[in-house]
Amino acid sequence: MDFTSLESSLIEFRAHANSFLSQYEPLVLVLAPFLTLFVARIIRSFVVSLHDKGLKTILLGFFFTAIKLVPGVKRYIDAEKQKVVDKLQAGSKSKREGWRTELPITGLGIGVIEKLKDEKRNDVVWQGKCSGTVYIGGSESEGHFSLINEACSMIIPESAHSAYDKAAQYFNIKLWRVPVNKEFQADVKAIRRRINRNTILIVGSAPGFPHGIIDPIEELGELAFSSGICLHVDLCLGGFVLPFARKLGFPIPPIDFSVKGVTSISVDVHKYGLAPKGTSVVLYRNHDIRKHQFVAVTEWSGGLYVSPTMAGSRPGSLIAGAWAAMISLGEEGYLENTKAIMEVSKKIEKGIKDIPELHVIGKPDMTIVAFGSNTIDIFEVNDILSSKGWHLNALQRPNSIHICVTLQHVPVIEGFLRDLEESVQKVKENPGPLNGGLAPIYGAAGRMPDRGMVSELLVNYMDGTC
Predict the structure, then answer these.
(1) Which tens digits make up the pLDDT trace of 219-264?
(2) Helix H segments across 54-162?
(3) What is the dihedral angle through the alpha carbons of 39, 44, 45, 47, rounded to the nearest 10 degrees?
């Protein structure tokens, strides 16, 4: 076939195609490809579900979903479910009517021990019989997560806690870390540029662990709400400080559910709540979100099973200890503690600024003060401080160290500032790593371009120590 005949065939094909398509509206022709893609996606989703669940399960699910669309049916089903829930809770020893929802204004102090004894007396008397089952431990990583999670992503600032990296690795979720802005806060514009249809979560901290700076939660909330994604606020460090600091008159911006768009909040009771180590809470905006945390199993030969957390078994002593700490201190106790540590933090910040070789990182909002230096090795300063008994955290991007102020620091603040100034002068006069110090390691790790190698070093270190 020569070129002329090929051209003639193409012209004839075009004529036939135009003649055939001329009977359709132009709008239909424009929409047809998009509709085809949409139908193809539905078919693909159906095939994947069919492979994962089976035809019977899909048909039953479709049937019950359709039934619930009938007016009044969903309301009736919800009411019947609530009756079952109420019946199950009626047989439980835990009664919500007796739960405290607020701190007492004045703490019970050592009287909390007597209160615990009173509560213990209300326990059912053990009759010397056992249930026949013993549950030991509980895994937080049972099973494997589907590769489908790779399609999901969450976006966090560089300053967000490394626990989000751990979660992303465990659940196989794509994690995007975006740089912070010049104030060392989450960069809302940078986060907005990363959001796409796979984004499920963004994170803000109040404050961030490295520098003690509160992210712009209101702006993040607006972004999350307009994008239809979740916003988690990390209040692990500030949960038992910032609300009381606001009451004391410190300029604390909105950081909780009063911000539209915030869907969940985490708080470590074992930090400034002063509870035993290992007690934290996660709060949700509503019950519908919280229910996604629960796991219900209906087809197990061991019976019906439902669990609220990743850990199947949890130590009741920690929960009791957290309750005792909060009731012992009360609102007045937390206000007093907050006033003390906030005031000392401001004194430390001022004291650091008075040392010419040092500068404070950003504008700390709470009880963490991070500082670095443009003239001396800050990690060498840290090593000398360690030799004097002050153990501060080493940070990177930029190289710096921070002090997290607690009640233990309140009476020794002058000694810390004096030792800090002496350490700075020693490094200035005799630069070089301290024998046995960690400055060379931190310095090398910060300059090493192959972050995978740094990760391997950390894993090998952990493998040899536990």
Answers:
(1) 999 999 999 999 999 999 999 999 999 999 999 999 999 999 999 9
(2) 55-68, 73-90, 112-121
(3) 130
